[in-house]
Specification:
It contains 8 helices and 22 strands. It is of the alpha+beta class. The chain folds into 4 domains: 1-14 and 28-69, no CATH class; 97-177, Beta Barrel (Thrombin, subunit H), CATH 2.40.10; 190-295, Beta Barrel (Thrombin, subunit H); 303-401, PDZ domain (Pdz3 Domain, Roll).
């Protein structure tokens, strides 16, 4: 930029130069106007050109940088990864909320070899933190026969020598405890009696024992499913399971099945090997009775009713000539179906009664008698509705602790 000194007009002539004849009031003014105005115009034009050039240059440089980084406005607008659907957002929110509560479980066990020596074997599964103080739910078959149990949090924090508090004698559920912790991220438990077929669900687990916190999604395909599950050489008959098409892989056992509110509604436990998209989860309500006692420091105790029964299906109703197609038929082919002196006996339940409700919940699609009873702890008093000789009767029963 030029300075003001550079813009000075030519100096007047010396005193010995001939005097100008025109009056002084006209010649100097005209001269100043004719020189200053073009200079001002030139300066304005130059500034405009420089300004336009600068803007244009900046625009070109910005575009070039954006293109190199792949972040120009056009590419962002066309990036399909930024167009999030409501379902994607729901699943992502569930993972953010519950992911820190899902843990990997690594076990070691000792096995005898041909030479009589002991060899270590390693297993892997998944668990769910259900208390800030370190209580964890998982499958019984995940820790069965384990000499040591290690728990790894989603952030990599590792806890060795985790306690196995006990297992459910009638279900594939185990309870673990990490000592000396007080602020672990605990998952919230939902209500498995209100789930719906077709409902969207999310599964999280330690797939194949290698891929921690793997997320899959699907729907509830069915409820109240019975299966015979095999783990190693042992076979266990499980009932009242939730069926889902969310992928459940080896290593996912013990992980949560979640609703889109991020609540645990099941514990993933088994898959059908000869099919695709058929997995099974234990209803979370079936763990609540024992968990209540565990959290209260009373150990692992399951509520006990004391009956033998047949789950009523359409086929069972036809075979036994029953008047209903849902419920539990109190029946045994050998001897009395009601154990003498049991809570059921004391409450007045009789052979060939049909239990239609437990605690006001219908027996059937919402759960069988075993899982509905398992929602309560020993000492709890609940209402049973039974059908006897065509009449509905309400009975009050106080549960005992199950003794194997």
């Amino acid at each position: 930029m030029k300075t003001m000194e550079d813009n000075k007009l030519p100096q007047p002539q010396k005193d010995d130069a001939p005097e100008a004849t025109p009056p002084e009031s006209t010649t100097p003014v005209k001269r100043k106007r004719s020189i200053i105005l073009p200079i001002i115009i030139a300066v304005i034009v130059l500034c405009a050109i420089a300004g336009y050039g600068g803007v244009r240059l900046f625009s070109m440089l910005s575009t070039d940088i954006a293109n190199k980084n792949g972040t120009n406005h056009q590419s962002l607008a066309n990036d399909g990864n930024t167009n999030v659907t409501q379902e994607e957002e729901n699943i992502s929110n569930v993972v953010d909320k519950v992911g820190p509560s899902v843990v990997s479980i690594v076990t070691t066990s000792r096995a005898s070899t041909y030479y009589g020596t002991s060899a270590g074997q390693e297993g892997a599964g998944t668990g769910i933190i259900v208390s800030k103080s370190g209580y964890i739910l998982t499958n019984k078959h995940v820790i069965d026969g384990a000499a040591t149990v290690q728990v790894i949090l989603s952030d990599g924090t590792t806890y060795d020598n985790v306690q196995v508090l006990g297992t459910d004698p009638l279900n594939d559920v185990a309870f673990l405890k990490i000592d000396k912790v007080s602020n672990l991220p605990a998952a919230g438990l939902g209500d498995s009696t209100s789930i719906r077929v077709g409902q969207k669900v999310v599964a999280i687990g330690n797939s194949l024992g290698q891929y921690q916190n793997t997320v899959t999604s699907g729907i509830i395909s069915g409820t109240n499913r019975p299966i015979s599950a095999q783990a190693g050489d042992s076979v266990e008959n499980l009932t009242d399971l939730i069926q889902t098409d969310a992928a459940i892989n080896p290593g996912n056992s013990g992980g949560p099945l979640l609703n889109l509110s991020g609540q645990v509604i099941g514990i993933n436990t088994a898959i059908a090997q000869d099919a695709q998209g058929i997995g099974f989860s234990i209803p979370i309500n079936a763990t609540k009775g024992i968990l209540k006692g565990v959290l209260a420091g009373k150990g692992v105790q399951r509520g006990y009713l004391g009956i033998n029964f047949i789950p009523i299906t359409a086929d069972a109703a036809e075979y036994y000539k029953l008047s209903v197609k849902k419920g539990a038929y109190v029946f045994s082919a050998s001897g009395s179906a009601v154990v003498a002196g049991s809570p059921a006996d004391r409450a007045g339940i009789k052979d060939k009664d049909i239990i239609t409700k437990v605690g006001g919940i219908e027996v059937g699609d919402k759960g069988g008698v075993s899982s509905l009873i398992a929602e309560y702890a020993p000492g709890d008093t609940i209402q049973l509705t039974v059908l006897r000789d065509g009449k509905s009767i309400d009975l009050s029963v106080t549960l005992d602790a199950y003794k194997s």
